[in-house]
Specification:
The chain has a three-stranded mixed β-sheet with strand order 1-2-3. The protein has helices at residues 3-22, 41-50, 53-60, 77-97, 121-146, and strands at residues 63-65, 106-111, 114-120. It contains five helices and three strands; from the N terminus they run αααβαββα. α1 packs parallel to α5 and α3 (53-60) packs parallel to α4.
C-alpha cells in the first residue's frame, strides 16, 4: 500500500470524528472564548475545517504562503460542514493519487519571503496536517464541554457518548 493510501485511511477515520465535533458548533455562540487569550469558537471551528486543505497543499505544492491568507467567512454549521466535506474530498483525491517519492520532497510554510519552516512532505503530513487537526479538535472538545454541549466519542467513549469506534481504517 502506498504512503498516500495509508495516510488517506487514517485521515478518513480522523475526519469522521472531526465532522461529529464540527456538527455541534453553535454559531450563535461563535464569539465564545474560554479565556481572553483563547481563539473565538467560530474561528477555531473554521480553522479546524480549513486544516483539511493543507493535505492537498502539502502534496501538490512546494510551499504554503500565509501572507495573504484570509479565513473563510462561515456563519452557519451547515456551511461549515459543506466547506469541510469539500476540502476533505480534495484531500482524499490528492492522497489517492500521490506517488511515494513525493513525500520525500521538501515543503515550506512561508509568510511572504520569510520561511517559517521546511520539512519533508511526509513529516509535514504527519505533524502539520494530521497532528495539528487532532490538536485543534481536542481544543474544540473543551469549548463544547464548557458550553455544556455533549462531547462525541473520539477513540473511545466520552462522558457523553458511549459509542466505541469499531472501525479499522487499515483494512
Amino acid at each position: 500500500m502506498r504512503i498516500g493510501q495509508q495516510l488517506g485511511q487514517e485521515l478518513r477515520l480522523e475526519a469522521m470524528v472531526t465532522r461529529k465535533y464540527l456538527a455541534l458548533v453553535p454559531f450563535e455562540k461563535q464569539d465564545f472564548k474560554p479565556t481572553e487569550k483563547s481563539e473565538a469558537l467560530g474561528r477555531l471551528a473554521v480553522h479546524l475545517a480549513e486544516i483539511i486543505a493543507w493535505w492537498k497543499a502539502c502534496i501538490e505544492q512546494e510551499r504554503l504562503d500565509f501572507m495573504d491568507f484570509e479565513p473563510a467567512a462561515i456563519q452557519t454549521t451547515e456551511a461549515l460542514l459543506s466547506y469541510f466535506d469539500r476540502l476533505l474530498a480534495e484531500a482524499q483525491a490528492s492522497l489517492a493519487e500521490v506517488k511515494d517519492e513525493v513525500f520525500m520532497e521538501n515543503w515550506s510554510m512561508t509568510y511572504g519571503e520569510e520561511i517559517l519552516f521546511t520539512l519533508p512532505k511526509l513529516q509535514v503530513a504527519r505533524i502539520f496536517c494530521m497532528n495539528h487537526l487532532i490538536h485543534h479538535r481536542a481544543q474544540l472538545g473543551v469549548y463544547l464541554r464548557l458550553l455544556d454541549i455533549a462531547v462525541p466519542a473520539t477513540y473511545g467513549p466520552s462522558a457523553d457518548d458511549e459509542e466505541v469506534l469499531l472501525i479499522n481504517p487499515f483494512r
